[in-house]
Amino acid sequence: MSETLKVVVDRPDATVAVLRTDGYINNTGGEEIAKEAYALLGSGVNRLLLDLEKTKIVNSIGISILIEILEKLLDQGGKLAFCRLTPTIEKTFQIMGLAQYARIFPAPEPALAWLRGESE
Questions:
Q1: Shortest CA distance to 73 belongs to which of 120, 118, 15, 6?
Q2: What is the edge-to-edge ordering of all strands in the sheet holding 103-105?
Q3: Does residue 1 lie in a domain region?
Q4: How many domains does the structure of the chain reveal?
Q5: Is residue 70 part of a domain?
Q6: Cross-strand pairs, 54
Q7: What confidence tens digit (pLDDT) does each residue in 50-66 have?
């Protein structure tokens, strides 16, 4: 697959950012997400929501890049959440251990509330 990934970044406040993906998260897609995530981390954002509503496939390299992003966030005292995953991606994230250190939500609103510390 050579489908390119598009990432749209939204900053609802100073410490939280939403990255909306559209496309396949492989090595190049994962690198695109990492580039945006690391730029946000460098600007003081340490709570990220990845909205994968328009992503249907994540390969093993994409998952390893997401794990690297998660590790950097945790090192900086941050949080990572995912929302609107396909059942297959959600199951993969559970198996790979991503769900152990990041939270998965059905929609953006509860994820943002959790990232801001407004809910458990």
A1: 15
A2: 6-10, 16-22, 47-54, 79-83, 103-105
A3: no
A4: 1
A5: yes
A6: 22
A7: 999 999 999 999 999 99
